[in-house]
């Protein structure tokens, strides 16, 4: 399973990359704004900076919502760097644009997906990735993980190559459950990824090993 980090924070992207487990980065307009990245030139420069850190795909989201504008904006984003994936919202013009990008060999990430029907449409349009938002479904008392299961079943039934990119991941159990179901990718905050490291028996076991070693060495 691929691990993407869901942030526009360069320090966190570097930290995840240096851990050696990072396969890519996802951003969205809210995450860019959170880092104070505003204005066309700054946004473009920031995407390029992210692409210089990671070896994997970097999702850059279009702001446009009409077909012609999505195509223009998406093609410009795709030209920035070979690692750029054009992130397109699950709206009618977005589906049309994904089909267009797919026919031109431009990678896409269909975002804001909350139902199996939306995921089916994204796959039929040829999206490289589909992003179901599991945390936001959980927030409204709907089982986000059930959606990942449903999409996995549908894609496997027909051999769709669109990769399931479980997004809006909030905690380590989301990652583990996605891995059990067979999500191709998860994207979440660095905290959810590093939380996978933690176990109290690891900490107490290591403390004991080091204490025994020190005792045997006569310290
Ligand atoms: O990639 C989509 C993701 O950023 C949404 O996450 O935590 O804002 O629901 P969240």
Strand content: 15-25%
CATH superfamily: Aldolase class I
Shape: globular
Radius of gyration: 19 Å
For the terminal residues, how far apart are their CA atoms?
44 Å
Q: Which CATH C-level class is it?
A: Alpha Beta
Helical segment count = 11
List the domain count as a whole number: 1
CATH domain fold name: TIM Barrel
| Biggest β-sheet strands, sense, barrel | 8 strands, parallel, barrel
Q: Mean pLDDT across all residues, rounded?
A: 97
Word description of this protein:
Its main location: cytoplasm. This is Probable transaldolase. Pathway: Carbohydrate degradation; pentose phosphate pathway; D-glyceraldehyde 3-phosphate and beta-D-fructose 6-phosphate from D-ribose 5-phosphate and D-xylulose 5-phosphate (non-oxidative stage): step 2/3. The active site is at 87 (schiff-base intermediate with substrate). Helix content is 54%, strand content 17%. It starts with a strand and ends with a helix. It has a single domain, classed as TIM Barrel, CATH 3.20.20. With 219 residues, it is α/β, with parallel strands linked by helices. Helix 8 (144-158) packs parallel to helix 9 (172-181). The longest helix is centred in the last third of the chain and has 17 residues, at 200-216. The protein has helices at residues 10-19, 29-34, 40-53, 67-80, 92-103, 116-125, 134-139, 144-158, 172-181, 190-194, 200-216, and strands at 2-6, 24-26, 57-61, 84-89, 108-113, 129-132, 163-166, 185-188. The mean pLDDT is 97. The chain binds SN-glycerol-3-phosphate (G3P). SN-glycerol-3-phosphate binds next to helix 7.
């Amino acid at each position: 399973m691929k691990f993407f980090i869901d942030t526009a924070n360069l320090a966190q992207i570097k930290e995840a990359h240096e851990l050696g487990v990072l396969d890519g980065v996802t951003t969205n307009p809210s995450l860019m704004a959170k880092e104070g990245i505003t204005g066309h030139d700054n946004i473009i420069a920031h995407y390029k900076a992210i692409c210089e850190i990671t070896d994997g795909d970097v999702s850059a989201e279009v702001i446009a919502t009409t077909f012609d504008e999505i195509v223009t904006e998406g093609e410009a984003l795709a030209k920035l760097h070979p690692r750029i994936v054009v992130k397109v919202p699950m709206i009618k013009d977005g589906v049309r644009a994904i089909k267009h990008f797919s026919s031109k060999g431009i990678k896409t990430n269909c975002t804001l997906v909350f139902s199996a029907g939306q995921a089916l449409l994204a796959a039929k349009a040829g999206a490289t990735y589909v992003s179901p938002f599991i945390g936001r479904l959980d927030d409204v008392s709907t089982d986000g993980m059930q959606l990942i299961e449903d999409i996995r079943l549908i894609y496997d039934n027909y051999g769709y190559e669109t990769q399931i990119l479980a997004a809006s991941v909030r905690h380590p159990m989301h990652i583990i459950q996605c891995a059990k179901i067979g999500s191709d990718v998860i994207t979440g905050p660095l905290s959810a990824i590093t939380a996978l490291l933690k176990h109290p028996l690891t900490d107490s076991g290591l403390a004991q090993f080091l204490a025994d070693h020190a005792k045997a060495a006569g310290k």
